[in-house]
Amino acid sequence: MITGKNYIGNNLSSKGTKQYNTFNPQLNIKNEHVFTEATAEEIDEAVALATSAFKVFRSISKDKKAAFLNTIADEILALDDLLIKTYCSESGLPEGRAKGERGRTVMQLRMFADLVNEGSWVDATIDTALPNREPAPKPDLRKMYIPLGPVVVFGASNFPLAYSTAGGDTAAAFAAGCPVIVKSHPMHAGTGELVASAIVKAAQKTGMPNGVFSNLNSSGIEVGEQLVKHSGVKAVGFTGSINGGRALYDLAAQREEPIPVFAEMGSINPVVMLPKSVKNNYKSLAKTYASSITLGTGQFCTNPGLILGIKGDDLTNFIIKLSEEIVKIDPTCMLHPNIIKAYDAKRQKAVTQDNLHVAAEYAEDVKTNYARQTVATVSGKAFINNPTLHQEVFGPYSLVVECESVEELEAIISNLEGQLTGTLIAHDDEAAQYPEIVSALQNRVGRVIFNGVPTGVEVCPSMTHGGPYPSSTDSRFTAVGIHSIKRWVRPFSYQDWPNELLPDELKNENPLGISRLVNNKQTTEKI
Question: How much is the average pLDDT of 494-518?
Fold first, then answer.
């Protein structure tokens, strides 16, 4: 298996001396393969190669770029059982989850290949000249998106495939024309190296420039810090904790040339259960949400960590039923001993807060690295006055807040930190009776769900996976779906430029046949 980094054309073993292993949380033992941490010299080399590759890759034809993305997908599938077994041994997640995430990863790559192949994503906009306009002539102006440059992508602990080496960030950056340097997550370095080898093979087969991709291993934070501070890096993608994302964001802002950091971070994803719905559906809601809270051992950024309702007998019935249902579910393994250690510490801190009541906690013996699911309750007033209760407990934990009134419910939503999702549970036409609740949710979240669960992120053009800080560092962009490509580009205008020197996307004859906005009319026609 390749160690260290992967460069197109010269795959080299790392020259570093610091080594580490991944960990099998199901067996509670270290995995055998040893990984070597990248050195400062290798970081410089990776960035230098990416910078050189950018000169070619930024202008490579859409057909070749699409072929590259599709071939990455093919090579990932060709890894077959080896990839699945490695994924499971490093994450503790079941085979079904591994195969599902592999399918999503391949689908994302092919989705971006289709986007690139069609070509209109560059948002070509043309305003032709009016030389005789009075009192001053109007110049010819043409605008399109162009890539930023080398992008650093940090692998995510909870998604070894879909949000890591060849995940959505990498696929979108490649589609935009940006070389990628991956800072592999130490918890699944073996999975990352297998996927990196697939990207290397795909780049070689499709003739991509040397340095279009590198994979750097690291057991700590030093390699990531050096990459973010490196002058040759032009943007960063991160999925993880608030502390980690904010640290990278601050590092990037302190550079002589600040760069964007698109970090998707913490979220407790409030679920608002309106009174009629609770009264009429509390049994089915309890069962549904017990499953959602424990799905994937609660290790999703969209886990429903906060449930809000109006205090009364109906909400009490829901809490009782939720408590009964959640302890029926067998506990499952968390990703790593460090993850469950953090879960237990944050859960303990939460449940020992004043005025909080533990409604349910799995009480039977559990295997090592398996999490005990927990449901707690608190009054609306106590929740408002205690910021500790507003923080994410990453794992199978949820807090039910019993509000005294609709006004208190609205106040709680309005004072939450930014969230990825908000959910409204309503019966029949009940939602129309609470416009202030809907408005409050809209101001705090990136996506609102009606009568569903927040867990599960569909990969499609209409998906927004992001939200106000701290759920993400820039709520204007999604981290999922084709529009995530906009993170890795910037608008660029040509004024009075000779037609023959323009990129094909902006030429009069429209040789690519893409849709363009020409003099305020969307068209595929020539000028």
Answer: 98
- The number of angstroms, rounded, from the C-alpha of 32 to the middle of its chain's C-alpha atoms is 30
**Cα radius of gyration rounded to whole Å, the chain:** 25
Which among 379, 443, 431 has a CA at the least distance from the CA of 275?
A: 431
Which residues on adjacent β-strands are paired with residue 495? 141
Cα–Cα distance for residue pair 304/123, rounded to 1 Å: 36
SS3 22: strand
Using CA atoms, how far apart are residues 293 and 272, in angstroms rounded to an integer?
15
Structure tokens at 275: 């009174």
Q: Tens digits of per-residue pLDDT, 304-318?
A: 999 999 999 999 999
Are 98 and 79 in contact, with CB atoms under 8 Å apart? no
CB 227 within 8 A of CB 5: no
Q: Tell me which residue has tokens 């130490």.
A: 186
Alpha-carbon distances of 74 from 79, 249, 469, 495, rounded to whole Å: 9, 34, 36, 42
pTM for this entry = 0.96
DSSP string, 460-492: STT-----STTSBS-TTS-SSSGGGGGGGEEEE
| Phi, psi angles (nearest 5°) of residue 74 | -60, -45
Phi and psi for 19 in degrees, rounded to 5?
-125, 160
Among 405, 412, 402, 486, CA closest to 444: 412
Instruction: Give the distance, in angstroms, between the CA of residue 217 and the centroid of all CA atoms in the same chain.
Output: 20
Residues in the chain: 527
Least confident of 9-13, 29-33, 201-205, 505-509: 9-13
The residues annotated as belonging to the active site are 264, 301
Q: Where does residue 198 fall: left (phi above 0), alpha (psi -120 to 50 degrees), or beta otherwise?
A: alpha
Sheet of strand 235-239: strand arrangement: 213-216, 180-183, 151-154, 235-239, 261-264
Whether residue 4 has pLDDT greater than 50: no
What distance in Å separates the CA atoms of residue 282 and residue 315, rounded to the nearest whole number? 8
C-alpha to C-alpha distances, 258 to 57, 92, 232, 282, 453, nearest whole angstrom: 23, 38, 11, 50, 38
Could you list the beta-strand ranges (E) of 346-396: 357-361, 374-379
Question: For 276, how many CA atoms within 13 A lie in the half-sphere containing its CB?
Answer: 11
